[in-house]
Amino acid sequence: MPLGQGFHPSRCNHVPHSHCQLVSVCNYYYSMISIFNCEKKKKETHFAVRRETSLFSVLMEERSHFLLSITFLLVLQYSSLYVAELTIGTDATQTNITTDQAALLALRSHITSDPHNILVNWSTTTSFCNWVGVTCGARHLRVASLNLSYMGFIGTIPPHLGNLSFLVALSFDNNSFHSTLPHELSYLRRLRFISFGYNNFTGSIPSWFGSFPKLQSFYLYGNNFSGSIPATIFNLSTLQVIDLSINQLSGSIPSAIFNLYALQEIDLSNNQLSGGIPRQLGNLTMLKKINLAHNNFNEIPKEIGNLDKLEKLHVLSNALKGPVPVAVFNMSSLTMLTLYENSLSGVLPDNICQHLPSIQVLDLGLNHFDGPLPSKLWQCKELLILSLEKNNFNGSIPKNIGNLTQLMMITLDTNNLTGSIPSSIFNMSKIEELTLGMNQLSGSLPADIGLGLPNLQLFYTEANDLSGVIPNFSNASMLTHLQLHQNSFTGFIPSTLCALTNLECLNLCMNNLTIETSTLSCLANHGNLTRLLLGTNPLNARLDDSFRNCSISSLQHIDLRGCSMKGNIPIDIGNSSSLIELNLGYNQLTGSIPTSVERLRNLQGLYLNDNKLEGYIPYQLCQLDKLVELVLGSNQLSGSIPSCLGASIRRLSLESNSLSFTIPSNFWRLVDILHVNLSSNSLIGPLSEGIGNLKVVLEVDLSNNHLSGIIPSTIEGLQDLVNLSLANNNLEGPIPSSFNHLLSLELLDLSRNSLSGVIPSSLEALLHLKYLDFSFNRLQGQIPTGGPFQNFSAQSFVSNRALCGAPRLHVPPCKNGTLEPNWRKAKYIIPGIISVILLVASVSIFVLRRKKNVEVAREANSLPQLLWRRVSHLDLLRATNGLNENNLLGSGGFGSVYKGKLSDGTYVAVKVFSLQLEGAFKSFDRECEILSNIRHRNLIKIISCCSELDFKALVLNYMPNGSLEKWLYSENYSLNMLQRMNIMIDVASALEYLHHGNSVPIVHCDMKPSNILLDDDMVAHVADFGIAKLVGVGDSTTQTMTLATIGYMAPEYGTEGIISTRGDVYSFGIVLMETFTRRKPTDEMFSGKMSLKQWIANSLLLPDAIIDEVVDANLLEKTKQEHDVETWRDCLSSIIRLALACSAESPAQRINMQESVATLNKIKNKLLKDNGGVQ
Description:
Blueprint: H1 23-47, H2 54-59, H3 63-84, H4 90-110, E1 111-113, E2 134-136, E3 143-147, E4 154-155, E5 169-171, E6 176-179, E7 193-195, E8 200-204, E9 217-219, E10 224-227, E11 241-243, E12 248-251, E13 265-267, E14 272-276, E15 289-291, E16 296-299, E17 312-314, E18 321-322, E19 336-338, E20 343-347, E21 361-363, E22 368-372, E23 385-387, E24 392-395, E25 409-411, E26 416-420, E27 433-435, E28 440-443, E29 458-460, E30 465-469, E31 481-483, E32 488-492, E33 505-507, E34 512-514, H5 517-524, E35 531-533, H6 543-546, E36 557-559, E37 581-583, E38 605-607, E39 614-616, E40 629-631, E41 636-639, E42 651-653, E43 658-659, E44 675-677, E45 684-686, E46 699-701, E47 706-710, E48 723-725, E49 730-733, E50 747-749, E51 754-757, E52 771-773, E53 778-782, E54 802-804, H7 823-861, H8 873-879, E55 888-891, E56 895-901, E57 907-913, H9 920-932, E58 942-948, E59 951-957, H10 964-969, H11 977-996, E60 1002-1003, E61 1012-1014, E62 1020-1022, E63 1029-1030, E64 1036-1038, H12 1051-1056, E65 1058-1060, H13 1061-1077, H14 1092-1100, H15 1113-1122, ...
Parallel strand pairs: 3-5, 4-6, 5-7, 6-8, 7-9, 8-10, 9-11, 10-12, 11-13, 12-14, 13-15, 14-16, 15-17, 17-19, 18-20, 19-21, 20-22, 21-23, 22-24, 23-25, 24-26, 25-27, 26-28, 27-29, 28-30, 29-31, 30-32, 31-33, 32-34, 33-35, 35-36, 36-37, 37-38, 38-40, 39-41, 40-42, 41-43, 42-44, 44-46, 45-47, ...
Antiparallel strand pairs: 1-4, 2-3, 55-56, 56-57, 57-59, 58-59, 60-63, 61-62, 64-65
Helix pairs in contact: 1-3, 11-13, 11-17, 13-16, 16-17
């Protein structure tokens, strides 16, 4: 029986009458037992590794047993004083009693709060020896013990307590005493036990604590002491326990610690101590426990290996680095070794367990250990907890690890372990937690995994390469957490999971699993399940069937995103009133958002994006006053934005819907919102000055709407703003100079508006700006050169009215002298200018009215009659539902393309030119001219043109399969090897025709995947000739403004404006690389001197290089499954080498398109031949 167990004060009643004076001391002893049994529960968490689990309670040697043994000795020693005290005179005794009473009354007066009225009986009408918390010696009636622990007092310690000269034990634990400790306490020279734990004492630890010659136990944990540890404390040669944990102490441990030769326990955890652990600690051979956790110590001395009685060593969460001294792994007395969360490195000794025969807890997680796991771990027969997670261990898990039959916890996650999980692990019947996630483990799990693991509670194997089916866990009835996500499991999710009544978290995301409706339904109605995470699996179920009749459940998190879910969102979803997060994004859900969501009053995140939902956004969402994230983008929602959204919203994503009307004024009252995306809707009206209220917003995207008016100057208040996009609206007026206050801005896109005036030079202050787009506006004046502007290219300023600046920006140089008018002269000049303008305008209107009909006829007749099918402006409006945004196929440099249906049922693509943009007229004329005079199966076919004074459009063949860009990067689209090759042959054939099939070579100038369209049969057609050029004799020309796309344009085009067929060849080479690598040339991985071309060249031109490093992983994986890998590797290598030949830096070194077509056909024919004609 542990010391103190079963002890009760009533036992004192059985001692002989001659020793009845010990009864009061027995009472004190019993109170100390109660206090420290409670104290043990609070302190366990501070030296028991880091986990909040009852498992560590089993492992921890109770602090109280040791403390009580000391207390018991103190009681015996104190009782021996009785005989000596018989000689004390009665008068002297009475005087001293009065002194003790006065000291206690002073203490009472310094206690300002006594919530439990404990001090009511501290009255002069009764003996202070009977007061609560006071214990006296029976003979001399002096205070021997003062124990006011766990009483909830608030107050300070008076100096009068220094008069309790017979005090042996002083304990004020778990109160709220504050301020500093009075120096007068140093007079208590008989003290053997001091405990001030869990109070609010401040200042430095007084040096006079070193003046107690008999002190054995010293506790100051859980206060606010700061400064260094006074060296005087380490002169207490009788000290056995010191606990200064959970303070704010700094500096190092004084080397004088070697004086504490009787010390058995030291706890300095949870401070800010630093430096090395002193070597002198190795001289304290009586030590059984060291706890230095949560400090900044950087070294464990090898001398610590001299402590042959040490049982527990805790140095977790420090700054230790380098290898662990071998001596530590040779301490045969150790039962607990916790070095978690440091920077320790090296390889663990293979025979580590041979010298640690008693080890029960081995925690070396979150370090930098590497090498294989020790193969002889099975020799640690007493091991209960093995924690080696978050290191760099490699190799396989030792097969004999199953011999550790006492193990209750194994955590090996986040390493580089490979191979299969040893079968012996699944027969360790005492295992409660098994964590193997985030490694490279493979193989499958045993079919009846639960049979050998009846006590399993947590099973984590996420982010590995496990395969096969989900096994039967039904016999693991204690299971609470099951995480198998990010693996390659297949088959049905077993219905037996529903039988795990204790299951709280189920995470099977990112596998290849399916599910029966009944299984999903029972999981949705599970009694204890709080997290149901099945996202990114092809579940292919109907949501309304699975959640129909859904009862009130404990579910807090549902993740079914990307699961091919169909059907409606059921009304019964409102019964899941505990829901905190509901993620149904990236599915095929239809119908409307049910109004029953208003019952989800605990909901914080609602994600319904990328579905096919229709109807209005229900105002019932406004009832969700805890809603933090509302993500409804990429649906077909209509109506207005609810004006009642709650103030709790931090993220609002409503992009790519059909929302209309103005942004409600109440929206600008969401002062705590962080992310706003309302882009690609039909919102109208001015941008409110209320935007300035969003003081903490980080991202605002209002692009692709119909917003009008000026940009309000109040936007300057958004000083945390990182991304701002107002692109493609109808905004006008100047760019506010107050933008310079947006110092956190990294992205600013104001393109495709009608902004005018100069670019404010104050924007040079935006030093974090990485992306800027002011293109397609009416800006004028000098482009600033300072700050971030030196990093922007011509693409940021293209198509404005009259910008000037550096040659690299492809704008004219600015004229000398000020751009500002002389206002003294202006007042005379301006009236004259206005008169001239009015005269010219009147004449122009008259002439235009007379010539209007002639002009329209002339433009229409400029097209060959053979091609021209008469289509009027009204016909095109009818065909496109009034240019409705639901018909919008895409937008380009000079306009937008809409899907239309002519009166005879023919589907067409209508390219409408934005005539307010500079160059739009020329682009229309050029595209009409070129497309009307060329014929090729791989070029987009023109059906008609519509040309009026204020409206110009091309009517083109509709390509139902969209662009190559869509097929490369959209989630639900993929191309196999031959499809990609055929598309590239089609494109090459089209370019060959343009370059060599006409009397005058035609240069496309903007070859990229978005300009390659695919018909019903996946035949490619090159489109968008808006900036094409007829180069004539000499095969090249020049132009002053570059309109081609960054990443695809040839170097000589971007730097010198040289246009030639060789430039198209360069662009084709880049597109060829992109098609087979699925990497855009503008990918963020390409910066500085590293480009797509350079990356491929670096990967392929090395002697041991293989194509796998650069080719699209999806393409390669499918190839490996279906075909001879080497043949396809040869084919891909040939294609990539052709791409590099097309994109040579020098135009003279590039091959032409005739050679490219021939080479591609040769590669294709060889591939088909080697694979027996396989498609």
